[in-house]
Amino acid sequence: MMVGFCLWPHSFSSLSRQLWIQGCAERSGGMAAALQVLPCLLRAPSRPFLWGPPVARMSSGMALAEQARQLFESAVGAVQPGPMLQRALSLDPSGRQLKVRDRSFQLRENLYLVGFGKAVLGMAAAAEELLGQHLVQGVISVPKGIRAAMEHAGKQEMLLKPHSRIQVFEGAEDNLPDRDALRAALAIQQLAEGLTADDLLLVLISGGGSALLPAPIPPVTLEEKQMLTKLLAARGATIQELNTIRKALSQLKGGGLAQAAYPAQVVSLILSDVIGDPLEVIASGPTVASDHNVQDCLQVLNRYGLRAALPRSVKTVLSRADSDPRGPHTCGHVLNVIIGSNSLALAEAQRHAEVLGYHATVLSTAMQGDVKSVAQFYGLLARVAAAHLTSPIAGHLLEEEAKLYQLAAELQLPDLQLEEALEAVAKAKGPVCLLAGGEPTVQLQGSGKGGRNQELALRVGTELGTQPLGPIDVLFLSGGTDGQDGPTKVAGAWVMSDLVSQASAEGLDIATVLSHNDSYTFFCSLQGGTHLLHTGLTGTNVMDVHLLIFRPQ
């Protein structure tokens, strides 16, 4: 018989304990196996949480990884699109007015809906459930395969009803704009352009919306715009820089959709996947007036050495942009509302970690910068925090702390709570969990397969192995809340301080892997792929979640 790991918080109610036993049964091979573990736990002294019997304790690393997965899943669960939309949107008792926060809009069978993004399917399902007959027509653009994924996962609340008034287009496979997404964008544009001053357009926007709403300005083709975006991303362009170019070459981004819908009133409900929640950046701001001009675009292109290689069509569009007789887009008829973000996900993961017995602190919701520098930051942080937990202050610790603060300053993280986190670690009596969110960038230099979360985890694992961390288990997890890290089918990966020795034992060369940006292939090979974070498409997207967990041995 094989017994799995299960946590037993002694504060559980009788119902929670019953559910716990059922969960153990699922993970450990049946109810009999779960019940055999139970007496061992009931005899144990009361502590915040207890690890299983000796046979299970041999895989303590996997147990820690299971906890990390639970925390990640709790973060994703907190930003499911339906509940967030329901908190922002309601009908008054008469059913004739739509309330959005503190604003009201008259309903006279004049309501239309469009949407684009990884969380939009669930948002649209919740919206149609609420609005009923008031909704005349809708068009949404969502990731390829998401309906099948939601159905397979049993998430019926994320699916539209059989006779829905909302037309669904699936596209942007592997997060890249394609012909299917282009057809969706043109259908959305057509609906918007047909509206009148008596109409109300509800726009649902989430992360991934840029790739799902490609409508290049002629004569630029989809392939030309896609190639330029790929080149910029491969050279490490930030999301803000990418969106500056996208908006300049798009009919719908940078306020273009709002202009197409004029004179109808427009309400945009937005699930943010961008650091700081800037409205003009999320999905390239289709309902927000753009404040960028041609000079901004040229500066970005010059910065990455691409201006000379521009296709003739792109030069044509940029040359006439500043002389557009319509002038810049204005969006006075638009109400934009952020309904969810990374901070909400981290707050729930923090709460869940505390339930599991961790002292939990949120470091930042704005982790950004080159993945190499971010990995160095987490590596230094791990060494400093581990030293605080296992030994008194020493000269080498002060030196490491100085390096950590210097690197933090170089990363320019606007909301970093580093000092507070280190103080909390120093005072902690037991396991610690540091949480962060954001979206680092990867400069592609090889032709391997991977994503920023898997590459970050691999680089952090390498940093953790540079010197002994003392009698403490350290785990780092990085996962995309959308469930898809780059052009792969996983959300991310987790590592511990023994990653380098594990890789060496299996004949895997980490340096070669990193030089080819081949982190997915690496993690598939390492211990049979057990370090990969499999969630499937989650139906939401609020950037990435990072967990750095410390547990004294």
TrEMBL record:
Residue ranges of every copy of the MOFRL-associated domain listed in the record: 68-318
Domain of life of the source: Eukaryota
Enzyme Commission number, as recorded: 2.7.1.31
Record GO terms (molecular function): kinase activity
Catalytic reactions of this protein: (R)-glycerate + ATP = (2R)-3-phosphoglycerate + ADP + H(+)
Family recorded in the similarity comment: Belongs to the glycerate kinase type-2 family.
Protein's name according to its UniProt entry: Glycerate kinase
Source species: Microtus ochrogaster
Lineage: Eukaryota, Metazoa, Chordata, Craniata, Vertebrata
Name of encoding gene: Glyctk
